Amino acid sequence: MTRSIAAFAFVLLVVQAGAIPFFQRVAEHSLRGLDVNFTQLVTSFGYPVEEHKVTTSDGYILGVFRIPHGLTAKGAAAAGKPVVWLQHGLLDQSGTYVNNLPDESLGFMLADEGYDVWFGNSRGNVYSTAHTTLSTDSKEFWEFSFDEMASLDLPACVDYVKAQTGAAKIGYVGHSQGTAIAFAGFSSIPSLADSIAVYAALAPVATVSHQSSLVLKAMVDIDLDKFLSAVGVNEFLPSTDLFESLFPWVCKELPIGCDAVIFSLCGSDYGNVNQSRIPVYVSRTPAGTSVQNMVHWCQEVRSAKFCKYDYGKDGNQQHYGQDTPPNYDLSSFSVPTALFTGGKDDLADPSDVEELISMLPDSSVVYTHNEAGYDHLDFVWGLDANTKIYAPILTLLQQYLQ
């Protein structure tokens, strides 16, 4: 029942958003990678892959993947490779970095350039729904937001990777919410920040008061986040068999519906995205999160702050010892950071990015790149992201990691 309501909520959001369809037929030959998991997708291109499990201090068991080496001479198996961690965005999963062909996907490109590549999955998504004591049927399992991803998931994963590889420092690439948890975690936990050699933020998100993402805007406008909490829905847009089987069919047979879904997620201009692979993208995305996490993002829109989850006055006193949730303080942020932003990004709006930059010390921002025609998902799904975004990232990683 909970899953059905969550699925209905997504349809409601698309309708509420007023998504305008774009008619695009799908080429059958472009559907490689459809209806497979991360491991199957990676191995279908001939790359090695490992599956790992990382247990957090509060019992969440996170699915982590690794491509230990590439297929080129430069990427051949060897000890002591520099390590890079890739963290997905809101409602996404690790496959977002290997969704396109190897020469277009950051995960494969890094492996072929000689990096030991690790892929994270935040608690509550399709690869991270296990717990040492809690079931996903319980309300308690879903009582988290990006606060816990930053304070508990990220440190556990970085410590695990360092232990597995022997690396003293690693590179970090985050997209969307993957940047928010990095800003939150690196600013709050000095030992975590000390473990990061360089941080590439794709479509960086902190404050979101200027966002115009149709999904978030609709949730805020109709108070859907409060409604879902009130009726006891805990899981938001889970990756269910319904989604996985329905969306590819919709994309092939009813392109209006498929385009509406993508429109609602990434905005009106997605000309940079490989539209022939949209069925592949939506067969794994949305990948699920907690309603509490979506509530947190709606709170961020309303408050115009980058702050912790608001439990209400009494709850805030219990959690924080004060009436209001504390802001994340980025004034002492020390990790060398590269910001990759888009001029047409509905979620990481340019005005919010400017506010983020003003919150960071000048010394921490080592590189900025604005791609005027880019929307939010172009950074991970874009056809030309390999040359416009990933090439500069490779240069930065070589500078700071090798």
From TrEMBL:
Domain Partial AB-hydrolase lipase: from-to ranges: 39-100
Pfam families: Abhydro_lipase (PF04083)
Claim: Transmembrane helix is one of the keywords in the record: no
InterPro entries reported in the protein's UniProt record: AB_hydrolase_fold, AB_hydrolase_lipase, Lipase_euk
Signal peptide: 1-19
Keywords associated with the record: Glycoprotein, Hydrolase, Lipid degradation, Lipid metabolism, Signal
Any GO BP annotation: lipid catabolic process
Presence of the UniProt keyword ATP-binding in the record: no
GO MF annotations, alphabetized: hydrolase activity, acting on ester bonds
Residues the record marks as active site: S176 (nucleophile), D345 (charge relay system), H376 (charge relay system)
Family statement drawn from the similarity comment of this UniProt entry: Belongs to the AB hydrolase superfamily. Lipase family.
Protein name: Lipase
Source organism of this protein record: Palpitomonas bilix
